[in-house]
Amino acid sequence: MGFFTDSYDLFCISLVTKLLGRIYYTVPGSPKPGSLPPNVAAAVNGVALCGTLAGQLFFGYLGDKLGRKCVYGITLMLMVGCSICSGLSFGSTPNSVMATLCFFRFWLGFGIGGDYPLSATIMAEYSNKKTRGAFIAAVFAMQGFGILAGGMVAIVVSTIFNALYPSQPYSVNPTGSIPAQADYVWRIILMFGALPAALTYYWRRQMPETPRYTALVAKDGAKACEDMSKVLNVEIKEQSTVVQSKAKSFGLFSKEFMRRHGLHLLGTASCWFLLDIAYYSQNLFQKDIFSAVGWLPSAKSMSALGELYKIARAQTLIALCGTVPGYWATVFLIDRIGRFYIQLMGFFFMTCFMFVLGFGYHHWTMPANNIGFIVIYGLTFFFANFGPNSTTFVVPAEIFPARFRSTCHGISAAFGKAGAIIGAFGFLYASQNQDKAKADAGFPAGIGMKNSLLVLAVINAIGLFFTFLVPESKGKSLEEMSRENEEQVGDLENPVVTGCDFFFEEGRKDSDVVS
């Protein structure tokens, strides 16, 4: 449920930004409903991503230093508190309301950031090599249900309020198109994210520390076997073995680390960075793309709640037909096809579909061709999730040594969020019409939607080539991928190989994995 909450909180903001613009920035007598000023829109959309980047680095580091379990509950408490506070953002002026909202969404993102390295690392270290990819991917696949839930919550809330407080389109009655009660709608949608996070807290606190961390980092083999016995409800006896050292232990970013894992870290970080530029540009600004191609009516022909309903309906349809199936295709096939080929295929098809949409943009904007646009656009989401959006999350949890695993995953994820920030801020400005008179109020002229889609296609193509830096981890143990068995220093006081290793490396049953 952690990633369900993460994606709900990150992406629900894209549903309500147009509503926020109408409520707080509509100018009386204007022919068009209000919209968020450029700097406010960029901050509202991107500030949570900035917090997520910081949280990935901070909690990733703490996960290796203090243990996975120790900091796992802290992230949830931050998410619960800041989700509630985001919905309680008040102020005497529109800008002060937005500033308060941005403050709490930054810290919400900070908590979400911790979930990335910790969730992936915990699942990787609890899984056996035969089904590890599917279980890590299944954790991440909950993101699809979170996106879907965001749209459904917005549909339900907007429908209820629209029934209770009917309103007319802006072109008919500008004042009456924004009922006073609409201010509750966006707050309810944002606060809903606290519910699944709160329900998850108890079970997170009951989880034992991962046996791999306990055995390989904390050097307590007896405790590792004791925890595994509780988890699997079977008796596991410690079998201490002294391993002769083949290589001295090394530190993060040391010459030895860079020799063994430098290109791997470059590959995981760069692929995630490039993927998120394209993925978050598409996800956060779906409503703008839908409006540009004519799938959504003009803003002035709808009421505030009517516009929210139609935006949520469109995003829910894309999530249901493209996003969610893509995630679960990865879950079912990742341990058969492998991470490398899924990522390569995903980047390839994302590149192709983006080029098709970009080069044929004027064709797709014609009303008769809107359905074709939506189908191809949905396929880009399918292959993003049955592709690099899933594999960039899975692989960093598998290929680095246990003592650096959470940190390296956090670094890779932070590069991804740096790309997401570029996508969130850059696409907002770049996609504006090349004619400043036709750009959104307050925005400078951009390169246009067509050229923006072509830029995203090129970015996906670059990601395809960086994929060749990422090793295939299908069917290999974590110790084999990280080469930890080459660096373990055995001694009588701290034996580093225990009887628990047999379970992880050989995998007695595919079902013997803790979720």
Structure report:
The structure is a single chain. With 515 residues, the chain is mainly alpha-helical. Helix content is 70%, strand content 0%. The protein has 21 helices and no strands. It starts with a helix and ends in a 9-residue tail after the last helix. The relative contact order is 0.16.
What order do the helices and strands come in, and which of them pair?
Layout: H1 2-11, H2 13-25, H3 38-65, H4 68-87, H5 94-126, H6 132-164, H7 182-191, H8 194-206, H9 211-217, H10 221-232, H11 255-284, H12 286-292, H13 304-337, H14 339-359, H15 361-364, H16 370-385, H17 388-394, H18 402-430, H19 448-466, H20 478-482, H21 500-506
Helix pairs in contact: 1-5, 1-6, 2-7, 2-13, 3-4, 3-5, 3-18, 4-5, 4-7, 4-8, 5-6, 5-18, 6-7, 6-13, 6-17, 9-10, 11-17, 11-18, 11-19, 13-14, 13-16, 14-16, 14-17, 14-19
